[in-house]
Write a structure and sequence with these properties.
Layout: H1 2-7, H2 10-29, H3 38-41, H4 56-61, H5 63-97
Length: 98
């Protein structure tokens, strides 16, 4: 995306993201519901059905999930800080074309 923005245009990044949505939707449509173990996805232990799925506090006790959550939040904060700069660049580029 950086190369597209650098060599083509800043708007090209947005078009590229829209194009990437198409293969993502296609791949998601290939997931068969029969292959998903819904009990295990909700925290069942050893294939046994658990009446109580994992709670939020239990998720916070898992160090790997906590680190992932922190990284995801920091990533989104970094992107949010760049949005005003991108808006300025797009506005300046649009002003030159007129």
């Amino acid at each position: 995306m950086g190369l597209i923005g650098y060599f083509l245009s800043n708007r090209g990044i947005f078009f590229f993201v829209a194009m990437l949505a198409v293969p993502t939707i296609l791949m998601l449509s290939l997931i068969r519901p029969q292959e998903i173990d819904y009990d295990m996805a909700r925290g069942a232990k050893d294939g046994k059905r658990d009446a109580n799925p994992a709670g939020f506090t239990e998720l916070l006790k898992d160090r790997r999930l906590l680190i992932f959550m922190i990284c995801a939040v920091l990533f989104h904060f970094a992107n949010a800080a760049m949005l005003p700069l991108l808006g300025e660049m797009l506005a300046i580029g649009k002003g030159r074309n007129r």
